[in-house]
């Protein structure tokens, strides 16, 4: 075990690539962490703008639809202009958008700023995966796991801080305090990540019927098709769960906003360890065994959640739901390796757009059911979707 860990560490640090991985991981920490500030400050936003749960869910839906819409353009731009350049642009655009969110004085402006934030983060979404595949071709699962673990660290740390600041001072401060971090991350990406990691042969010169056929045929291969379907269902579960879990703990389980924020942070804190382990498991065992394991544990925990009361049982089941965070690492590593190198960014962008577009509708539907008094039943529905992921994974041929 010790020699295996040393081998993994050496594999992601060699040839000076460790600094590039650190820069990409830091940007994941910040951009994904900021995105998760929304669920934590949702009670303050509801009070400030008079939103019901359905409208609040629509705000999350808008964020994720914008994120989905930017995935294909982000993938194409990463292929054509370079992964490093696009990640820097994404960080700068997102920072400017955070300023707009802070200054929004009406619900219309808040929704518009949310759209812009989703688009800005979307540019980063595909570029980081293809850059990691280029930089670490033999350790793609492990490097993706490290970057996504950093994202979970951001989701574990940034939202609770934002929640405290929003409750104690103003909700605007929950976003504004992240602005200095954007400057540091943008500089790190500019200095340590090559402008283009994929070389001059990636991408395509123009969109044609032949190009569309080529992309389509590459994505219809059975391993990619079922892996993509599992990723889409996972995104639906993840977006809905993370969007409403703090509110659910407050309104259904009677917890304070502070306790709900800590439990929400602990969910992502577990992901800091789960994601690198999931990536290592994928590199060694492939998608079937690794994804069946994490979703089996999380699905069972989601079934138990509505029937539990009290801080300790709910805290324990929160930690058992967290292994599903490794699903994104496993599924996307599998997809990246199944898509041809010359359309890697474009192909992953198409899949992520489809997944996020489908999943983005779920918060509005979920919030509406919660307004009707079916909050617990909605969480049982998420457990059923975890079972769907298991069925899809079983359709993927063994490696």
UniProtKB/TrEMBL annotation:
One of its GO terms (molecular function) is transmembrane transporter activity. InterPro entries: MFS, MFS_dom, MFS_Efflux_Transporters, MFS_trans_sf. Keywords: Cell membrane, Membrane, Transmembrane, Transmembrane helix. It is a multi-pass membrane protein. This is MFS transporter. Residues 20-399 form the Major facilitator superfamily (MFS) profile domain. GO terms for cellular component: plasma membrane. The chain crosses the membrane at residues 20-41, 47-66, 86-104, 110-132, 175-193, 223-245, 257-277, 289-308, 314-336, 348-366, 378-396. It comes from Salinadaptatus halalkaliphilus. SUPFAM superfamilies: MFS general substrate transporter. Its main location: membrane.
